[in-house]
Amino acid sequence: MDDQGARTRGFNTKLSHTGRAGKRVHGFVNPAVHRGSTVLQPSMAQRKEFQTARMEQELLYGVLGGPTHWPLEDMIAEIEGGTRCQIVSSGLAAVTVPLQAYLKAGDHCLMPDSVYGPARGFCDNFLSRFGVETTYYDPCITPEKLAPMFRPNTTVLYTESPGSHTFEVQDIPGLAAVAHAKGAKVLMDNTWGIHFFQPFKHGVDCSIQALTKYVVGHSDVLLGSVTVNTREDWERVRGTALALGQYASPDDCWLALRGSRTMGVRLARQMQSGIEVASWLAGKAEVLRVLHPALPSCPGHEFWKRDFTGACSLFGVVFQPQYSQEAVNAMAEALDLFGIGASWGGYESLALPTHVTRTAGSGNFGGPMLRLHIGLEDVADIIADLDKGLAALKAHKA
User: Fold this and answer.
1) 337 torsion bin: left (phi>0), alpha (psi -120 to 50), beta (else)
2) Can you name the residues that pair with 382 across neighbouring β-strands?
3) CATH level 2 (architecture), domain 263-395
């Protein structure tokens, strides 16, 4: 099949075949793990040639990546519709590397009020020390209302759609058009969207993912990715990652590549289960509303319908205001199948009472909240467990 045919293959086919040597190669199906620091060169002339190719997939020194990193980078770039991908050590590193790549002293950054907490902390506690100012905006803002927030020194519009705790879906194409008209780059945390949202078709310049979640799929590896679609953006991101000494273990990359092979079937099962559970919760008297982008009760649901091809298994629940946060905590503690944990995207279900930090007036949801990640357990068992949790919630009614 030619290159054009490979690019039009389906998602699951790409997951099965990208980053492999091919079926007509004698050897094991999966790429090997290549560990190493020192790389020997056959001659000084060839070493000099490699030194000029630091942006490419060339073996020069271990920290620059190698044959185990490259298949995973190719996989992520392929499923996001980009051209190049940089693997980094964690999801947070995937946030901080591009922010440092595109911001410098004296610049201004626009950040959604719903942003991942450690990203907010990085802006407030790190970038501010180096002369970068951050303004937080309502994630549900319209492009017309966002435009006046740009300054002459605004170089980055950061987006996270949906928000990882409160699930507002942003009008990415509309916001990106404003940012580009103002000369700013558009960065997006696309961890929830994975492949359901194609960032570069919607105006994003740099896509961020915590591979820790669905790509790894087994809650045992920390990893992140930064994907771009132009040579200019690649040089900015790659150069910054190298300058910061960003590196991911080949063993972790191998585990992520292994997990990615089954990600399609996991996503399909978890999407179906997540929507079924979210719909069940939406009908319960104890629930004020469910913050699942596939449900009309979620802010920005119309943008999800327009821009996404599916949904993952992470969503939020807002309870009626008569229930206290302590009651929600009691519900989480009463669940048997749900662990209390901060991550998501693995095979197991998780429940986490939600506490949001907001400074742009976008934090009033009407009641206490719980974030749920739906794993691979049987849906009937999950619903029965949540029903027991709701009984514990009512028993602690304030």
Assistant:
1) alpha
2) none
3) Alpha-Beta Complex (3.90)
Beta strands (DSSP E) in 149-201 are: 154-160, 185-189
Rounded to two decimals, the pTM is 0.93
Distance CA 395, CA 43 (A): 75
Please provide the size of the chain in residues.
398
DSSP code of residue 33: P
pLDDT, tens only, 35-72: 988 888 888 887 777 666 566 777 777 788 899 999 99
| Residue 313 near residue 274 (C-beta atoms within 8 A) | yes
Placement of tokens 């699951």 in the chain? 12
CA dihedral over 194, 199, 201, 202, signed as positive or negative: positive
Q: Report the distance separating Cα 160 and Cα 341, nearest Å.
A: 21
Closest to 67 (Cα-Cα) out of 43, 36, 42, 28: 36
154-160/108-112 β-pairing: parallel
Q: Are 213 and 189 in contact (CB under 8 A)?
A: no
Digit-coded pLDDT (tens) for 334-366: 999 999 998 999 999 999 999 888 889 887 899
| Structural tokens at position 272 | 């179906």
| Look-up of token digits 């020390």 | 129
The torsion region of residue 21 among left (phi > 0), alpha (psi -120 to 50) and beta comes to alpha
How many whole angstroms separate alpha carbon 343 and alpha carbon 24?
Answer: 39
CA pair distance 252, 220, nearest whole angstrom: 9
Q: What are phi and psi of 324, to 5 degrees?
A: -90, 165
Segments making up each domain of the chain, as ranges? 10-33+68-260, 263-395
Which residue bears the tokens 């719909």?
279
At the topology level, CATH places domain 10-33+68-260 in Aspartate Aminotransferase; domain 2 (3.40.640)
